[in-house]
């Protein structure tokens, strides 16, 4: 496609652009907002001057500092004999292949002027009821217009969007499974190590109690030392996680690789496990008779 744009060098005015031929109600049915100009109307007939609607990505690429409405484009290279088409409007960007795909420049042609460009038609139906409940009615309507017209690959928009990220969802589910396993192992490991360290200090705790330390003093001492170790480990883990987020960024959609809620949630969970691992054995030791604690091996 070749565009009419003084903002670009001559060689940059011809590029490959995604194209779609749509009916008058397409943008309303699909919920694609109009950003500038007008949408197609009944006046855009086959005999009328050729018009086209572009998305914002195409407007930004070819007319970054200009109003694209009223500009012209043509199919083919600059030397092509195809007629010039006038940009009638600009619509919001939308993904066409999958939710995780990038936004490409797109040009939309009115069905009345470009129906011969495609051999297959996609029919989109918007309904306030259950979409699956009207499939039979849509099929009957199509067959009433043309009994030989097949209808296939029927999907709801929810199914279509889910299918587009199916492979990525599977990969993330596997990562989620291993992540939960790693979190469980980390929690068990933290509990085991801190519990062992605290239990090993039972003799020391008994001596402190014999010398007049109260149970609260012992709990604060043991928990404070254990939590300092846990905080140091959590801090190092968070730094390492931030450093490795670039490996995850391409697998995520709708959430950043440095999502603060996730990082804070995992850190608080591990801190809670560490607190429990320090508190339980420390409380047992603090409530033990000093003489028994002193004889503890």
What does this structure look like?
- With 297 residues, the protein is an alpha/beta fold.
- It has three domains: 2-122, no CATH class; 127-164, no CATH class; 165-294, no CATH class.
- 47% of the residues lie in helices and 10% in strands.
- It has ten helices and seven strands.
- It has helices at residues 26-30, 56-62, 111-114, 135-145, 157-164, 166-200, 202-210, 215-243, 260-286, 290-294, and strands spanning 2-3, 18-22, 34-37, 51-55, 72-74, 85-91, 106-110.
- α6 (166-200) packs parallel to α9 (260-286) and α8 packs antiparallel against α9.
- The N and C termini lie far apart (84 Å).
What's the helix and strand layout?
Elements: E1 2-3, E2 18-22, H1 26-30, E3 34-37, E4 51-55, H2 56-62, E5 72-74, E6 85-91, E7 106-110, H3 111-114, H4 135-145, H5 157-164, H6 166-200, H7 202-210, H8 215-243, H9 260-286, H10 290-294
Helix pairs in contact: 6-9, 8-9
Strand residue percentage? 5-15%
Secondary structure: number of strands = 7
Largest sheet data: 7 strands, mixed
Q: What sequence of helices (H) and strands (E) makes up the elements? A: EEHEEHEEEHHHHHHHH
Count of separate DSSP helical elements:
10
Secondary-structure-based class equals alpha/beta
CA-CA gap between termini: 84 Å
Q: Quote the average pLDDT.
A: 84
- The value of Rg in angstroms is 33 Å
* Helix content bin: 40-55%
Low-confidence stretches: none
Oligomer: single chain
Please give the domain count. Answer: 3
Shape descriptor reads elongated
């Amino acid at each position: 496609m070749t565009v009419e744009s003084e903002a670009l060098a001559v060689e940059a005015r011809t590029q490959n652009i995604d194209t779609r031929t749509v009916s008058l109600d397409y943008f309303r049915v699909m919920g694609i907002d109009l950003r500038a100009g007008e949408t197609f109307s009944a006046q855009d007939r086959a005999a009328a001057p050729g018009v086209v609607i572009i998305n914002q990505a195409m407007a930004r690429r070819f007319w970054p500092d200009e109003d694209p409405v009223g500009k012209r484009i043509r199919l083919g290279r600059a030397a092509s004999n195809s007629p010039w088409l006038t940009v009638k409007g600009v619509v919001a960007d939308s993904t066409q292949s999958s939710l995780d795909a990038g936004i490409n420049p797109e040009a939309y042609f009115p069905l009345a002027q470009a129906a011969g460009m495609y051999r297959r038609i996609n029919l989109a139906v918007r309904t306030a009821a259950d979409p699956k409940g009207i499939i039979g009615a849509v099929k009957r309507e199509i067959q009433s217009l043309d009994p030989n017209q097949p209808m296939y690959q029927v999907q709801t928009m929810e199914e279509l969007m889910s299918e587009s990220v199916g492979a990525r969802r599977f990969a993330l589910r596997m990562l989620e499974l291993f992540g939960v396993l790693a979190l469980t192992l980390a929690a068990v490991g933290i509990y085991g190590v801190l519990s062992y360290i605290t239990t090993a200090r039972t003799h020391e705790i008994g001596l402190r109690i014999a010398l007049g330390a109260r149970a609260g003093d012992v709990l604060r001492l043991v928990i404070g030392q254990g939590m300092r170790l846990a905080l140091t480990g959590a801090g190092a883990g968070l730094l390492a996680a931030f450093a490795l987020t670039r490996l995850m960024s391409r697998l995520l959609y709708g959430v950043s690789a440095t999502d603060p809620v996730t990082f804070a949630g995992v850190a608080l969970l591990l801190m809670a496990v560490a607190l429990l691992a320090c508190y339980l054995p420390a409380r047992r030791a603090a409530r033990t008779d000093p003489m028994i604690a002193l004889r503890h091996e």
